[in-house]
Structures are given as C-alpha cells and as structure tokens.
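Q: What does the assembly look like in three dimensions?
Context provided by user:
Components: two
Sequences:
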Amino acid sequence: MKPLQQPVIGILGGGQLARMMALAGYPLGMRFLFFDPDPQACAGQVGPLITAGYDDTKALDEFMREVDVVTFDFENVPVSTVRYVQQRRAVYPDPSVLEISQDRLLEKRFFQKLGLPVGQFFPVNSYSELAFGAKSYEFDALLKTRRMGYDGKGQFRITPGADLKSIWEQARGRKLVLEQRVPFEREISVITVRDADGQLSQYAVTENKHNNGVLATSTAPARYTDSCQLAKTHARTIAEALEYVGVLVIEFFETPDGVLINEMAPRVHNSGHWTIEGALTSQFENHLRAVCGWPLGSTDSWGYAAMLNWIGSVPNIACMPKQAHIHHHLYGKTPRAGRKVGHTTITAEDPANLQRKVVNFAKQLSDSLGKL
Amino acid sequence: MKPLQQPVIGILGGGQLARMMALAGYPLGMRFLFFDPDPQACAGQVGPLITAGYDDTKALDEFMREVDVVTFDFENVPVSTVRYVQQRRAVYPDPSVLEISQDRLLEKRFFQKLGLPVGQFFPVNSYSELAFGAKSYEFDALLKTRRMGYDGKGQFRITPGADLKSIWEQARGRKLVLEQRVPFEREISVITVRDADGQLSQYAVTENKHNNGVLATSTAPARYTDSCQLAKTHARTIAEALEYVGVLVIEFFETPDGVLINEMAPRVHNSGHWTIEGALTSQFENHLRAVCGWPLGSTDSWGYAAMLNWIGSVPNIACMPKQAHIHHHLYGKTPRAGRKVGHTTITAEDPANLQRKVVNFAKQLSDSLGKL
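A: Here is the predicted structure of the complete assembly.
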C-alpha cells in the first residue's frame, strides 16, 4: 500500500477513541473528519464533525468527498453504512470484521472455526432453551444479547437464585446467547496492529479489571505467565485470518487450564490507553499508521503503566499539582452515571514503584475529595 | 487566582503556536476557540476558528461570549483589540506587555530602565541619522523597523560596502531603530513561566542557531556557562517587573563580556518547542496552566533535546520508519518559501548521544531525498 501523504482521515463515530486518534495524528500532519449522529460527540471539540444518522446517504456522500481513507471508533456502526462508504473510499479494517464482531454468536463460531478456545455457549431463542441452558451450566452463566453489547450492556447474570422468568421477560425479543461463566483467574487483552502489507506487531499483554462489566483498570506489561504467550499467538492467528489492517484487541480469560477468548474489538480499545505514555508508539498512532499505509512504530513498552478509568465523574485536576509520571486524559464529555469520561495513566520503571505510585495517587485523590 | 474548571480558552492568533497549545490542553479537558483574520490559519484544523479582522468588534463580541479566558499566540495582535477583549474577559499575559514588545525601541528602553544589559542602539528618523549612526557603529549594524518585525522581517544589514541611500529608500516611512551588531559567541534563550500568584519557574537554557534571521535549531540544556545563570536572573527580573502571567521568552546574545538581551516574546516560543518531549511539562501546557490559574508543572528536563525547524518544506515522514527518540510535528500549513511548516525534536540521554542521533537523522533524511 502506498503511504498517504498528509491524509484526511474520516472516522465513523466521534467518541473519545476518535478524539484520541486525532490527537495522535495531528502532530504527524494528518487531518480528520468525524461522523456521528450525536451533535455532542466529544471528538467534535477537537476537529470538524458531521452530525447525521448512519443511514443519511447525503451526509455520507459529503463525508466521503472530504476524506482520503475511512476508519471507525465504534464497532456498532451499521455494516450497511460502512459498505456504502467502501464503494468510494478505502475503509480499514475491512467491514467484514464488523459483521462478525457485531454478533456474539458469529464471533464465537468464528473463533471455534479457527480452532481457538472459547468458553461454553449456546444460542437461546425461547424460555425453555434458557431454562435448559441455565440448568446445564449449573446456574452459573451469563445471558447476553447477541448484538449491541459493550461495557456490560445487555447482560443478565444467571445464578442459582435468579428469577429466570423475569430475566426472560426483560431479554426476550432480542437474539440471545447463553455463556457459561468462566472461573477465570485474570482477564488479559492483547493489542495487535497489522498493516496492509502484513507486518504485524503486538504490545505487551495487558491485565484488566472490570467493575460491573465496565473496564476499571489496565496494567501492562501484565505479570508474565505461559498464558500471555498463548494469548499473543491466538491474537496473531485471528488478525492474520481476517487479513486485518489496523489495531485489533482480543480479550481473554486466563484460567488454570489456559486461556479462553472472551471477545474482540476491531478498533483501538480502552485497555490500550496506557500505550499513549507506556509504549514507544501509542495504539492510536499505530492504528493511523496502518490505515494510512505508513510504516508501523515500535510497540515496545517504556516501562510499566497502570491506567485508571474515570467513570461518571472526573477528579478536579485543576487543583492538583502536576506530577511527572501521572498523565490525565479528560474527554470533554458531560459527566453521567456509568459514562467513561476520562482516564489517568501512571507510569514507573518497575512494578513495585508503579504500585507505590498508584497507592499515593489514590491517597491524594481521597485527600482532595475530603477538601471539597 | 481561582483555578478555572474545564475552561474554554480563547486564543487571538491561530498559527502553529495556538495549535500546539490546544494539543497540550485537550487531554486536560480544556476547550479552545481561535480568532484569526486568515481562514487558512492552521489551528483551525484542530478546533473552532472565528475568521475576522482584529478590528471587527462584532466578531470579537462573539468570541468573548464563548470563552472563559483569553491569551494570544502572536505578539503583533493590535493592542486595541486585546484591550477591547480585556473589558469583558481576563487576558493573560496583560496587554501592557504587548505595548512594549511591539516596539523595539520601547522594549530596549524598558530593559535599560530595569538596569539590564542591551546592545548599543538609537532611533533613526532621517537619512542623516542613519548615516551618522552607521558611521559611529563602524558600518557593522542592523537597521530594523521598530514594529512588526519577527523572523528576520523588516531588517537591513549595514556593512562597510552597503548602499545606505538604497537602504533608506526601502526602509523610510516606518519608525526605525539602528542596532550595533553584537559580536556574539552564542545565542541563547530563557523560557520562564509565571503564574498569577507569582510562582515562577524556568526551563533549561536553550541554545539557538538562526539562518537568515529565522530560527533553525534549538538545543537544550545549553552547554553551561556563567552567562546561563545571568540570563536566567535577567529573565526573572523582567517577568517580575511585568507581573507577567504565562510563558515569557527572552533571547540573549552571549559575548565574551557577558550577556546582552536581544528581545522578548510575550508568548510560547519556537525555541521552547523542545519542551514537548524534553521537559516534564511542555511550555504549551505550562502557559495554559498559568493562564487558567492551575498549579504549574515542573520545568525540569528529561535529558537532552535538539529541535530542528522545517522551513519551506517538510520531510516525507509518511515513508520514514518511526524512531522512538525522533518526534515530528507538522503544522498542516501549505509549504511556502521561508515559512515555518513543522519541526522535529530529537531526544537523548546525554549530549554525545544526541549529537550522534542528529547526525544519523540528517543522513537518513538525505538518503530519503535521494530516493524521491
């Protein structure tokens, strides 16, 4: 692929991922145009935004006229939209990956076809299937909508005491899949970037902690286990099978018996935010490099990094003394319960110092809250 | 001064300095609005831009309505404009500094009044004054316009063979000052940041090389001499005398007899671009912190840095492999002879490695040019 010179990059979706892509691309002379149905989309603060529905072909035509290449910051952009854009502009990664990743069932079957390990699951189309499945998974399972699920949305926990009837009433009408709960020891993710010529590079494996289905913290490099190498190999298999171009993130469960794939995100990902300060090239810059046909940058780590998500509210950084190894990123979004509104990355030379800095920062935060 | 929470910052002037301020402020949740008479102003690629003349009070009213605080990226914004804005919004630094810095003669007299060393100069209002001055400075001088001079614009070199009549014909009609040329050993600059409460911090002294009056390279920390300490003290005296808020840059000539002040820039400055990667807090972030009443960040250096300006054209970075210690910054401007269109900063742990990396980079550049 011939490198695009001073490209204008169109991004479908204008959230914080689009915003951070733009901030990574501007110093490289790249320009951006965002497309989002929401006029408040936070990327619109840092570049031009077209506000229109994803089915508005007139607006999409305008969008295409202005850009050299297209990518997305949201895996639930309708495939029909991306296919329409692809008639006139190169789109990376290819929309075919969206067809898979937008449907949990197709996604799991895709991993199985590649011979990769996934947890037990089966599709649920009726109450009796739900009841049967719940029983066969010993009432330790998750009922998930096949489509439009992210950040723990569209999930129902099945426990021995759960009211299956009530869950069914809430969930019915949507395509569903029941997943046996995996008794995992750790959640890890692998951030892979692949360019159009097949060059592939992977960041240090990241360890993730979730609260209520929403990512709370990521640390990298994760404590090394055999599973880390296995996870990287699986991620490579997936990226190559898809002939993927851009950043692809695969989430895994680490269990006593090895790793199971949880899901994939065909885009830059929250668990890769630490790469802004913690890696030689951020996931955002490398995604843009891949999409524009530029040579990739090194994915090596500088040291150790911990990323903390701000959900629902942000700390009052205007009053905090700046510390050299603490990097705040606010997204300019209106705070709202459950909403990702920013993150902070703490960097250190080794895991012990990282731990110490995280504890100090937490203490400082609670002190400053006490003063408010 | 009470810290502004998630402020909207208005910037008069929308060039690369405004652009880099915005890129520094976005991760902190700051928002920006640029004001520039040029619809192509390059900051407009990274945020909203009002295009109007500096005397367009209706447009200025609109600008003021949208912002919490105002600063500028260009010292030749008309003082009347900034005074008008100041009636309704806080402006930092105070416009009084523009009145001084916009006139070379007032500026030099201001430094003299503070007891600080400047080179020989005198105002020129007629051909006979020019002829007299040229002779008394032994035909080794510079005739400069008092106003609107930057990047070597509005300067005439006086040498023994110079055609004074012709120079006078070109220069007359403007207010002029004749400066004896200083036989300097080095040009250095001091980047000072001061907040509204009087806290003041200074970056490592920077060594600058110019080509045809335009900054070509800056390296920092400069090789240490007694002059460096003296320059820092003078810069502090100036910032405190002005009760300055924001980043203030003072350029000095280092001579065998000590330092002489060349000029000041009441804004972030090209010789401070190395601070983006070379210091714990960039000049852009610290300027914003001062302007918004936030605590300043450390001005300590990470190591050694060299900044190379791209003037007239930029290297083809789309084809270059990314290197971890080489940081490109393109401004999105249309290349034109003599125009600053980008810069590259190279960082290293020590001066010897820095030198080696700069040489390698230059070789790589000339190789890539050979391939075009």
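Follow-up: The longest strand of chain A covers residues 246-255.
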